[in-house]
Amino acid sequence: MVMCRRSNGRDGRFSKIVDHEFALIPDINGNFFQINVTQRELEYATMRKTDYQVDFYVFTKCYPDSGKPVIVGDVTSLNNSNFDPKNPTRIIVHGWMSNKNSFINEVLPKAYLEKGDFNVIVVDWSDAAENYDYFAARKAIGKIGRKIAKLIDFLNSHAKTDPRTVYLIGHSLGAHVCGVAAKHIKSGRLGLLIALDAAMPLFSTYHSDRLTNSVADYVLSIHTNGGFKGILEPIGHAAFYPNGGKTQPGCGLDLFYVCAHRRCVEYFAESIAHGNIGFISNKCSVLKFSETMDFHVANDSSGNELFNFLADSNGKFYRLNVSQRELQSPTVYKTADSIEFLLVTRNYPNEMRPIVIGDVQSLCSSNFNPEHPTKILVHGWIANRSSPINHILPQSYHQRGEYNIVVMDWGDIAWNYDYITVRRSIGKVGRQLAKFIDFLYSYGGAHPSGLYLIGHSLGAHICGIAAKHVRSGRVGVIIALDAAGPLFSTYHQDRLTKSVAEYVQSIHTSSMGIFEPIGHASFYPNGGKDQSGCKTGFGGMGCSHNKVLNIFGETLTGELVNFMSRRCGSLRDLNSRKCLSNEEGAYMGGDPVNTQCWGIFYLKTKDPLEGST
Predict the structure, then answer these.
(1) Which residues, 6+ apart, have CB-to-CB distance to 572 below 8 Å?
(2) What are residue 238's DSSP bridge partners?
(3) What's the N-to-C CA distance of the chain in angstroms?
(4) What is the dihedral of CA 90, 203, 430, 546, to 10 degrees?
(5) Per residue, what are the HEC states of 382-437?
(6) Rg over CA atoms, the chain
(7) In whole angstroms, what is the distance from residue 451 CA to residue 437 CA?
(8) Please, which residues have CB within 8 angstroms of residue 441's CB and are 6 or more apart in sequence?
(9) Separation CA 524–CA 505 (nearest Å)
(10) Alpha-carbon distance 308 to 299, whole Å?
């Protein structure tokens, strides 16, 4: 990292020419990936992690509380595990952010072993699953499934266990892992697979490792949070929908559907213990479109393609081409969306005046003044014009002076609990912002070099996309406020980089954001993960993620000396707090930002700043 230095490259900007440039990127467990960041045209960089650890533990009547490890290829471990080929074998596979001690591995072995003699094998794939980057865990299921297939072949070879007598039971992502395993067994066809609310994100259309009923003699699926965390459409020979399959009684508000998604595990455990008493179901002939809004299929005019109309959580419809079965990501056409630009000025601090691209009169009526600095604010996921960024920052800037504060409201797209869909939509949102910037230049006299684009979470990446598509000049400054991490863990063409603007400053405050430095200057308040006034760890991530708004706002209205930061030689130095105290520091934020200082910087905030916990 370099601070306060420019090369003599073209236009005086920093330049570096290399054949290959690699970065070590850590996952949530501290494991490092070597990423080739020169592959800028690839959707995802080459990931050098070659394997994941998968452990198998056998629980039996003799050892109901402590599973005995079985190692594929090690016959001694099998003999010592108390595995009995005369007893039925049940293999349990957990889902994302889980391990051998997770809920499913507590209740299902107990239910089976209280019922009778079973070999209950718990699969622990937490080396891949315990990773806040869902996309990375999703991509790993192929390797995990093949390892389970090898276990089943090993049991067949050395314990004479016929795969047709084996039950594979998977929850969430684990259900798809079971499907992969079933397809790769060499010693026979799997007898039965039970899918407990099989995961939906990144499985909404056909993919080669998505569970189907063709992989085993019989597939039974139980759906308790369909259309949200789980797949709603039937994927088993028999598909059961307790209480309609979407939400479950006793789960209360359940904003993130954690309760409903895991309730299927409880239902299944109870069905084992009580022999299906109380679980009599009525057969339905179809899933009606009027009820599910998910399965209406129609041919286009040519008759060559098939389309589904899918509803998001707001009831708005997407036209989905389901004939593209070999694509990992289908083509999605949103039938209606609205992106609005609203001006807030010091003279009208409580009024948002719309500016419409192409409508010069709206610009003239908005009170836009080209003599004042212009800042464009871009919110993130599950947000809109009324979200905190659009209250905190306009107030902070207007305490400082006269500004054109433009709020970009893309809430029609962003306010959708399906993060994957929102993530995939940011390209068109960014391009619309670029058109707005070109419009401001043409009719408002605001040159892009004088603009600040300020984005929070997903909004930071939108700012980067916009900067790449502006035609009227190069954007001056981007400020990335805890740029979103999920689905941006490796280089992607719409991931924010410092090359898109004259100067990029990034502020990192939580594990929900990208941790590696992405700006010319990257600041890490309190180490960049847990913030003052927020809980530590998983429970406080949302608070820390939003606290960046308060922190940056305070740099505009408070004493900038409180935000003096110290340069760090590397992320390793940052994590160990070995940043150089004798080096010249840099002030974080403020206005205008200091565009001459580059590097990684650490600072400690003095007092807890206001914000929700």
Answers:
(1) none
(2) 220
(3) 34
(4) -30
(5) CCCCCCCHHHHHHHHHHHHCCCEEEEEECHHHHCCCCHHHHHHCHHHHHHHHHHHH
(6) 27
(7) 9
(8) 447, 448, 472, 473
(9) 11
(10) 9
Both tokens assigned to 575: 């994590």
Please list the active-site residues. Answer: 457, 482, 545
Could you report the per-residue pLDDT of 487-535, keeping only the tens digit for each?
886 667 889 999 999 999 999 998 888 989 999 999 999 888 888 888 7
What pLDDT is recorded for position 204?
A: 61
Q: How far apart are CA 326 and CA 310, in angstroms?
A: 19
Tens digits of residue pLDDT in 465-490: 999 999 999 999 999 999 998 888 66
Per DSSP, what are the bridge partners of residue 453? 376, 478
Q: Contact, 603 vs 523, CB < 8 A?
A: yes
Asked if 454 contacts 236 with a C-beta cutoff of 8 angstroms, the reply is no
In the chain, what's the furthest Cα-to-Cα distance? 84
> How far, in Å, CA of 294 to CA of 292, rounded?
5
Model confidence band, residue 307 (pLDDT cutoffs 50, 70, 90):
very low
**Residue 189 region, left (φ>0) first, then alpha (ψ -120 to 50), else beta?**
beta
CA-angle at 316, arms to 311 and 322, nearest 5° = 40
**Predicted confidence (pLDDT) at residue 335 exceeds the cutoff of 60:** no
Distances (CA, A) of 295 to 200, 289, 363: 15, 6, 43
Does residue 586 carry a pLDDT above 90? no
As to burial, measured by CB atoms within 10 angstroms (0-12 exposed, 13-18 middle, 19+ buried), residue 532 is: middle
Do you find a cis peptide bond into 592, omega within 30 degrees of 0?
yes
Displacement of CA 496 from its chain's centroid (Å) = 15
Helices 104-115 and 258-273, packing angle to 10 deg: 10
For residues 204 and 231, give the distance between their C-alpha atoms in angstroms, rounded to a whole number: 7
What are the pLDDT digits (tens) for 116-157? 999 999 999 999 998 766 777 888 999 999 999 999 999 999
Tokens matching residue 207: 């993919």
Instruction: Show Cβ contacts of residue 369 under 8 Å, excluding neighbours closer than 6 positions.
Output: 345, 402, 404
Give the whole-angstrom CA distance, residue 7 versus residue 122.
57
Rounded (10°) CA dihedral 399, 405, 408, 409: 50
Residue 13 has which token pair?
């900007």
Residue in 394, 415, 405, 520 with CA at minimum distance from that of residue 458: 415
